[in-house]
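Predict structure. Input: Trans-aconitate 3-methyltransferase, 226 residues.
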Amino acid sequence: MVEQARDGTDSYTYPNVSFQSGPAEELPFFGDTSVDAVLSGQAAHWFEYPRVWTSLARVLRKGGTVAFWTYGNPFFVNCPKATEIITEWSTNTTDPDKLGAYWTQPGRSIVEQLYRPIQPADEFFEDIKRYEYVPDTKGPASGKGEEAIRLYRKATVAQWREYFRTWSAWHGWHEAHPEVKPRKDGGTGDVMDRMFDEISAAEGWEDDDVEVELEWGTGLILARRK
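Output follows.
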């Protein structure tokens, strides 16, 4: 990914842009107080706490910003039955034929809580703010919280099925059931096929071309270096 970013960035047009890879708990390629802002999108649940706070405090200038953003569980905003079913399939940790047992923990639980367990160290940071948006199933933007960070998208049932096959839990399930193939590959149907069978039956979706809108719970943490 880093190599792709480097290859795709014109150094003449963007002479101040560089790409580095390393642990957030060390950041060896940054000098002390050399950074204005540290941004993390859907990654801070993997950091080692509290060690990462010492690392970020070292590289940030006084007044520098930390911003951690995440998105959690999906909601079919016009379809309460579909939302109930996907929540059950994605969070059930006792049924090996569903997805909940295949998330890496504790990272997934931190995501599902929209980063509430992550507490910036008071020793280093001030002006700590939290923003959340939690969707509902009464229609688009019917949830509670900061609509400015609402994450939403409309797609067909077929497209959503493929999107959910990008989940790490699906990859874990697939590794545990290598003999089970999706219908699109000539198989009898994998966990996503079966989950969407249940959803389509509950919602009365007659084919995979039905368009539905999803929103995700989102969370944002902001903090400023003392």
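Helices lie at 2-7, 51-59, 80-91, 107-112, 157-164, 168-176, 191-203.
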